[in-house]
Design brief:
By secondary structure, the chain is α/β, with parallel strands linked by helices. The protein is 26% helix and 31% strand. The protein is built from six helices and twelve strands. A hairpin with a 2-residue loop joins strand 10 and strand 11. The longest helix is centred in the last third of the chain and has 11 residues. The radius of gyration is 15 Å and the shape is globular. Bound molecules: glutamine. Glutamine binds next to helix 5.
Length: 197
């Protein structure tokens, strides 16, 4: 029973993307949420979610709002961060063919928009053994593919197109959008990781 555990405060980066859907999923999993747009707000959170959107735009806004450096520093200090879609691109150490600004820290190579125009968005059932036997519905929207994972990276779910959910210490990355289904198991797994990194 976690009823006596301190309620976690999770920030959701509020630059772009499904901010409210992430808040709903995190709250369903038991956290309190705050929207993070300024460096000061980063100091109040136990963990942070980076929603999807356009990674180049989000990266540019992070620099413009003075959040990039504080975020890199917090990531190095071990702040748990969960990046979804564009969010996992921002966490990737290597973005194939792109010098775009990123936070980094996750030892993977990602390829942006790697499913091609014909399949801009699609859904498929995912198997995530650590989340139980029931399949998870994965919503992929102009999704990246993870082409390489470093030794320290644990693959929590993969398809024939490669890893789709990965973890490296306090960093969690999904190439899909778990906030767009009512199933909050991935957000709950992130909260567990925040409690026990
Ligand atoms: N295609 C976007 C990018 O490259 C990611 C899409 C998403 O977050 N749904 O940044």
């Amino acid at each position: 029973m976690l009823t006596h555990a301190k309620q976690l405060v999770i920030g959701v980066l509020g630059m772009q993307g499904d901010v409210h859907a992430h808040q709903r999923a995190l709250e369903a999993a038991g956290a309190r949420t705050v929207i993070v747009r300024e460096p000061d707000e980063l100091t109040q959170v136990d963990g942070l979610v980076l929603p999807g959107g356009e990674s180049t735009t989000i990266g540019m806004l992070l620099e413009r709002f003075g959040l990039m450096e504080p975020l890199r520093r917090r990531a190095v200090e071990g702040l748990p961060i969960f990046g979804t879609c564009a969010g996992v691109i921002l966490l990737a150490d290597d973005i194939a063919g792109s010098p775009q600004p990123r936070i980094g820290g996750l030892d993977v190579t990602v390829v942006r928009n790697a499913y091609g125009r014909q399949v801009d968005s699609f859904e498929r059932e995912l198997t995530v053994p650590s989340l139980g036997a029931a399949p998870l519905r994965g919503v992929f929207i102009r999704a990246p593919r993870i082409h390489r994972v470093g030794r320290a990276v644990e693959v929590l779910s993969e398809t024939d197109a490669g890893p789709v959910l990965v973890r490296q210490g306090p960093l969690l990355g999904a190439t899909f959008h778990p906030e767009l289904t009512p199933d909050s198991r991935v957000h709950a797994a992130f909260l567990a990781l925040v409690r026990d990194p």
